[in-house]
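User: Is it possible to get a 3D structure for a protein together with its bound compound? The compound here is 6-O-phosphono-alpha-D-fructofuranose. I've pasted both below.
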Amino acid sequence: MTGPIVTVEHFIAEQEREHPQATGAFTDILLGISLAAKVISAAVNRAGLIDVLGVSGTENVHGEAVQKLDDYANGVLVGILGRCGSLSGMISEEEEGFIQIPESRDPGPYIIAFDPLDGSSNIDVNISVGTIFSVYRKRSDGPRVQIDDLLQPGSEQLAAGYVLYGSSTMLVFTTGTGVHGFTLDPGIGEFLLSYRNMRIPSPGKNIYSINEAYHDQWTPGQQRLVERFRRPPTGGAPFSARYVGSMVADFHRTLLRGGIFMYPATTKSPEGKLRLLYEVAPMAMICEQAGGRASDGRSRVLDLQPTGLHQRVPTFIGSPGLVEMAERYLADD
Ligand code: P6P
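Assistant: Yes, that's possible. Here is the predicted structure of the complex:
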């Protein structure tokens, strides 16, 4: 680690000093996310070990029921964030409805939406997985959360971020003043600043990221777009194809290297697979804050008005030039 050692706690305090509008009111949310990330990281990194110990499935060595890791991650986040004084309600990929913070706890002015462990099916084969989160201000008066508080366009987000449980555990977030990355030092149990003010390379590397198995289910414009990536015009820079199948990993690579990540509409999933509120909108805020572009193929993701907590949306996110190219090819569909 070159340069000064800056923990995420110190960084957040620094941001509050430098940005008067950062009231610090959602500092406790970010610190709650940081703590949950450490707890989930420890469990994710033990997943293989637990299997070796033969406790996968029903009970662990202590006779406790072994939860699926995404249920476990959800419980950790709900438990820790539920004690944050500034939250009124939570939306989780693992919960059908929203979670109202009990009025007895004097709910706060914010709402959080999260996917506790995206890509969790990849854990069994030791592929990176992630947590994604998004913070909004509660709009309605009174302590109880109303549906309008939950269905806000991504442009209303106050903060967004993800945790990538990979070769190292990284926390990447924005509060509207740039994107910053922190790497967990397991030796001291601290997230240390590793990327200040991340910017997506543009044009960046020519990498396209999509599950090509669905080719025959794509629209003609989508098929022509990928064909264009595979066979650039004479003299055009060649593309590489990269697809992990875990959104946080595919997005993180795109943020660092450039390129485009796509999960388009298919005949089987006309709205795509990825969820707007707690997967695509937070990644879109991060991407735009880093100089990138995020679209559903026609419109800016952050302008979309959600109509449901678990609504899906076609996703094109990454270097602005490539996302604009995707929009041009899809315009003919
Ligand atoms: P497919 C993981 O299950 C996930 O929700 C995202 O993390 C990932 O980008 C996508 O689904 C992969 O879906 O259909 O390519 O397997």
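The longest helix spans residues 27-52. Helices lie at 8-18, 27-52, 69-81, 147-150, 220-230, 247-257, 276-289, 320-330.
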